[in-house]
Each structure stands twice: as structure tokens, then as C-alpha cells.
Amino acid sequence: MIKENLIKIKESIPENVTLVAVSKTKPIEDLQEAYNAGQRIFGENKIQEMVDKYDALPKDIKWHMIGHLQSNKVKYMAHFVDLIHGVDKFKTLVEINKQAKKHNRVINCLLQAKIAKEDTKFGFSFDEIETVLSTEKIAELQNINVVGFMGMATFTEDEVQVSEEFLSLKNFFDKLKAKNKFLKVLSMGMSGDYQLAIKNGSNMIRVGSSIFGNRNYNQ
Ligand SMILES: *Cc1c(COP(=O)(O)O)cnc(C)c1O
Prior knowledge:
By secondary structure, the chain is an alpha/beta fold. Helix content is 40%, strand content 19%. The mean pLDDT is 96. The site of pyridoxal-5'-phosphate (PLP) has 13 residues, from strand 8 and helix 9. The site of pyridoxal-5'-phosphate has 13 residues, from strand 8 and helix 9.
């Protein structure tokens, strides 16, 4: 089914939208099946799990870290990670920069914005993002590139609310893009809401269960 699911999703999204296949908790065979169907970008939310999969799978895969980051674990993925979605502290950027430098790499990062009205622990406010991007300290971090933002909408059936939350980040993204040409990626949308996210300006979606089926956390 994985191949069929991938084809269906790819057919339903515009060409400018990048599909990240979220493979957390799924076995290597499932990722290999998606790879054989042409998928090359995979998202994981635990660093150790991503490292194990990186070691086991073809090296032309681009690995995206989509989970909440613990600074002390950044070093384990610094040699290969392609894009880090969930940066929500300046301190984390400093650590990513330090680890990237050791490998002579520049690591692309997205700043996570808090857009959900529900109480979420993670993410910068829009004001905080403006501050981070305008601070002189960020120019000193030569081994990271902030290339865009990531946001998660409230988990609700209320499509109006979800749309509003996505649109708020799209508008903020457009505003900052005018001054910061390096902002290119807007990562919004998961299995349940990626169509709404795309309607509201997303150009990168992170889709797990619609490709791989429901996750089983009890295994
Ligand atoms: C798990 C996860 C996804 C994918 O969720 P699905 O509903 O299975 O598509 C997307 N983004 C983040 C940050 C996740 O943790």
C-alpha cells in the first residue's frame, strides 16, 4: 500500500510542494518500500532512530529531523541531517552551528513558530522569530542557514481555525521574506490537514500515517 499511498498523495499536491515522508516508528522495510517507489525525503522525530535508519538505508536519502530537539543529541546527526524543522531556541542554533562546523557542513534549519491556539510547549512567537533573525549573533553562525519556518495547527476538526492558524504563519513568512531573501521553506501540514495547509501557502508537508498507516507505539 505504501507505493499506492505515495502516488495518490503526490498526484494530489502541486509540484512546488515538497513531500516529507514521516517514517517515525516504522521499520526499515517500510522506508525501503517508499524509497523504491521514488521517495527520497524522510522525516523522523527521534535522533537515535534516524541515525539507525540512516546507517541502514541508501545514502541519497535526505533526512529531516522534525521532532523536538535536545541540544545534547545534535552531534549524532550533524554529519548527515539535511534539514532540521523544529528549532525553537537560539541556544539550539548555536549548538547546531558548533556541530556542523566540526563536519565542515552548513546545516539548513527551520524556526518553529507557535501558531496553535491550544497550549503547546514548543515554538517561538512571531516577535521572537523577528528578534532571532535580526540579532547580530545569528550572522556569526556561519555553519547554519535558517531557510524558513515550521508550524503545527491546533488538533481540531474546525477547519476555519486550522486555516486561520496556517494563514497567520504564511502572512508572517511573506512579510519576513521581503527582507530576508534566504527564507524559502514553509513547512506546514500533516496527514489530517495538509490540503488546508497547501491552500494557505505551505510548500513543504510532513505526512506520516497517510503513507505508512497508523503508528504503533506499543511495539
Ligand atoms: C508525526 C509528525 C508528523 C506526521 O504526522 P501524520 O499525522 O502521521 O501525518 C508531522 N509533523 C510532525 C512534527 C510530527 O511529529
